[in-house]
Amino acid sequence: MTKEELAGIVIGRLKEEYPDADCTLDYDQAWKLLVSVRLAAQCTDARVNVVVERLYEKFPDVEALAEADVNEIEAIVRPCGLGRSKARDISACMKILKEKYGGRVPEDFKELLALPGVGRKSANLIMGDVFGKPAIVTDTHCIRLVNRIGLVDGVKEPKKVEMALWEIIPPEEGSSFCHRLVYHGREVCTARTEPFCGRCCLADVCGKKGI
Q1: Annotated catalytic, 139?
Q2: Which fold does the domain 3-22+136-199 belong to in CATH?
Q3: Rounded distance between C-alpha atoms, residue 89 and residue 75, angstroms
Q4: Is 156 one of the catalytic residues?
Q5: Which of 60, 65, 81, 133 counts the highest number of beta carbons within 10 A?
Q6: For residue range 158-197, what is the model confidence (pLDDT) as tens digits?
Q7: Which of 86, 98, 121, 129 is catalytic?
Q8: CATH 1.10.10.10 is the classification of domain 30-129
Q9: What is the pLDDT, as a whole number, of residue 129?
């Protein structure tokens, strides 16, 4: 079986298993997803969703957050960890959105990458979830699962995993596929315990590598 054939099977089965899989960060505007994905580094999405409620109560739009004292931002986002660096990045990012883009989030991948605190994972998430563009988000679940399954072979560097997946995942499937990997990684193909292979929809095709 080729990797392309395996990818097709994995995509199909995960669609059946998690038909409604979506981003687990709460947001209703593009700039809020940009904030949340920065806070999510080394923090759970559930905690981020709680913390941003307080942040947006005090700073309800891009302009307010751009003008906020970075120390005030840090005091609110500290529960997410790395409070100082995250607050600094959020402040700088919102200033650029306000001054350069009129408060809007750019729809260009390279422009997103140029924003403070935005890496390829974050930029791909924005491109896929906000703008509906082809995207592959290589978070820890994605990297772990595609190695275990055998879609990539011992590749752990996020950009290299992303590039390898672009070769075998149809562009229109990338964003949803990655969301489904997150669900599957949390519920079945876990990291901190032995994976629950006995109830995995991919058990018969999985390469079970890197466990």
Answers
A1: yes
A2: Endonuclease Iii, domain 2 (1.10.1670)
A3: 14
A4: no
A5: 65
A6: 999 999 999 999 999 999 999 999 999 999 999 988 899 9
A7: 121
A8: no
A9: 97
